[in-house]
Fold this sequence. Notes:
By secondary structure, the chain is mainly alpha-helical. It has helices at 3-27, 34-43, 58-72, 78-86, 96-117.
Amino acid sequence: MTNTLIEKNIVLEQLLEAARSALSQLVDSSYLDASVLANDCLEDFDNFDWEPLSNINDEKLARWNKLKEKGYDGEMTHTELSEFVDLTDPSGQCHAYFDRIQARKAIDAIALYHSDKKPTE
């Protein structure tokens, strides 16, 4: 690798870590409290046009449909909501809780990627 590419890589790594840190603070702030958003999502569940992931198997699709019905009936738990989110298409209409969960997963993936890039001592 040339020095220019190495320097660009270092800058990108620093920017990635800065973005991860800032987004982590935002996602973990009281403004995006997961339990408050989950409660709101469950209350407004039937106002969204949820879509399953297109690549899930029949068993997971059946589970997604069962969870969706529980959500529409007002019987879904927080644990079930998290499971439902994992099976739901992000390009469809979703509640802010969905975005908060997806953001947390992305931040965690960046942190894992960034920790793998650090030299071992």
